[in-house]
Amino acid sequence: MSTLTAHELPDYAKERDVAAYTGISAPTLRRRRAEGLPPTYIKIGSAVRYPKTQLLQWLTSLAEAG
């Protein structure tokens, strides 16, 4: 799996981009969506996208809480 930097992460990231950036597996991201857990996502038609700003805010909140 390749890794991405925050600069390389698209404004509306695909699941695989979020997995590469965070290290959270795609199946775990899918499970979290099904359970209504963060990170926040949007659907554009049938496509799932993660807004970069909200993803980075969520990751920051985890780092501050941990």
Uncertain stretches of 5 or more adjacent residues: none
User: Could you tell me the mean pLDDT?
Assistant: 95
The side-by-side strand order for the widest beta sheet comes to 1-3-2
Distance between the termini: 25 Å
How helix-rich are the residues, as a percent range?
Answer: 40-55%
User: Overall 3D geometry?
Assistant: globular
String of helices and strands? EHHEEH
> From the alpha-carbon coordinates, what is the Rg to the nearest angstrom?
11 Å
Give the helix tally: 3
> What's the story with the biggest beta sheet?
3 strands, antiparallel
**Percentage beta strand:** 15-25%
Q: Output the structural class.
A: alpha+beta
Number of strands: 3
Which features would summarize this protein structure in a list?
three-stranded antiparallel beta sheet, 66 residues, alpha+beta, single chain, 15% strand
Provide structural commentary.
The model has no long low-confidence stretch (mean pLDDT 95). The longest helix is centred in the last third of the chain and has 14 residues, at 52-65. The protein has a domain at 12-57. It contains three helices and three strands. Strands 1-3-2 form a three-stranded antiparallel beta sheet. It is globular, with a radius of gyration of 11 Å. It has 66 residues and is of the alpha+beta class. Helices cover 47% and strands 15% of the residues. The termini are far apart.
Short description:
This protein is an alpha+beta fold.
